[in-house]
Amino acid sequence: MSIIVAQNLSKIYPVAVKEPGIQGTISHFFRRTYREIKAVSHVSFEIAPGEVVGFLGPNGAGKTTTLKMLTGLIHPSSGIVNVAGYTPFRRQAEFLQRITLVMGQKQQLIWDLPAMDSLKINAAVYDISEREFRLRVGELTEMLSLEGKLTQPVRKLSLGERMKAELLAALLHRPQVLFLDEPTLGLDVNAQVAVRDFLREYNQRYQATVLLTSHYMADITALCERVLMIHQGALMYDGSLNGLLERFAPYREIHLELAHTVSREKLMFYGDVKEVDGRFVCFLVPQGAIALAVSRILADLDVVDLTVNEPPVEEVIGRVFQVGVA
After folding, report:
1. Which of 34, 104, 141, 214 is least enclosed, having the fewest CB within 10 Å?
2. d(CA 188, CA 170)
3. pTM here?
């Protein structure tokens, strides 16, 4: 049974249209005309309990609007949405106990107070007993490596520490469903890795369902086996990340280190030359031609090292958004 269900989910915003000039201003004041902006259009998907699903799309694609409908922050224009057995926009207390929403660009912790004070407020809101509060804070503090940090004012924490504290506050009531919108936004590489490791452990420990949006593809590849892709408000792919890469990466990269430099004109005989940096060369070669290209390269060139790699995930995703899904 699915814990998240969206059927033909749509969100349309009416936007006032004003003609230029004084006459346009006067007309706009007395009689406004509107056009419709389709932020999300007939999106359907289901997510099973315990799944970690990546939600991908360029800026303005409709990701955050969809998350807001799933969490009940905005009412859908049409369609059906059900999360943990509840209709989100009704905002029932039982529903709010079962979900959490973390947005990397927003904070819930009080800036000038220690994070522990905000956590105590959350505990009161969710009616968590003092004993259970201590147990949960202790467990999450250990998982997030926040020992000694929760008694400091939030403004004195590093960005990575603040994000960890935000996660702790968002998970204090132990929700079943986590909606995470850019949780590693702006963090350095080490902090990103720490957040990913925590989310993986939390999912395994509590079987929590996670819907994750991120512009850092390392977040997606590290945590998600399945991805949803949305573009211009419409869902364009729902399936495994590996399946996406196999379908939309029809080529491989051959990286060479040569004993001496070779002209680009000569190298073009072996494949599409993506990059040349002295003795280091990168080719793009169709999957079906890899064996032939490698044999020719080894026979004709003085090769020090050779590796064959898949193209970066970011390039594949960008290609999907450019050409669409057939």
Report:
1. 34
2. 21
3. 0.81
Number of domains into which the chain is organized:
2
User: Same domain, yes or no, for 111 and 15?
Assistant: yes
pLDDT (tens digit per residue) in 192-207: 899 999 999 999 999 9
Helix, strand, coil percentages, rounded to 5, for the chain: 40, 30, 30
Task: Quote the CA–CA distance of 209 and 207 in Å, as a whole number.
Answer: 7
Phi/psi at 232 (nearest 5 deg)? 55, 40
- Between CA 12 and CA 3 the distance in angstroms is 25
**Distance between CA 39 and CA 75 in Å, rounded?**
13
Which range marks the domain in which residue 32 is found?
4-245
Q: Is the dihedral of CA 195, 202, 208, 150 positive or negative?
A: negative
Q: CA 231 to CA 59: how far, in whole Å?
A: 9
Q: What is the pLDDT of residues 8-51, one digit of tens each?
A: 999 999 888 877 888 777 777 778 887 888 999 999 999 999 99
Backbone angles phi, psi at 212, to 5 degrees: -120, 125
